[in-house]
Amino acid sequence: MEMDKYLFFSFQDIIIAPDQVSAAIIQACRRNPAMGIQALCQIDDQVLVVLTPDNFAAVPAELYWLDISEQPFDDLVPLLQERWQSGFSAIGTVADCLPPRKRFLLFQRRLAEMS
Length: 115
Hints:
25% of the residues lie in helices and 40% in strands.
């Protein structure tokens, strides 16, 4: 039985190079065995992405971090619905612990959702 994998990033990595963080997650998911994203956790300025063995259809085809720092809470549901209609699902949010309190929401589109 395959074990979960854990990827660690600093919140600063997400601020400075969100595309590189996304690429690293996708690369880890595409290794053998195929992995899907199980969870996104944060403690202070450390972000943990939990990957779990899955079939290849669960592998993210696309990942992106959306800066929601200026997003009012009341606009969050319409934003999620709009992204869902475009084939993306939300994985979770991370937030900076210090001002100016940057916040990012991670979205994915799985390979299975590409067809």
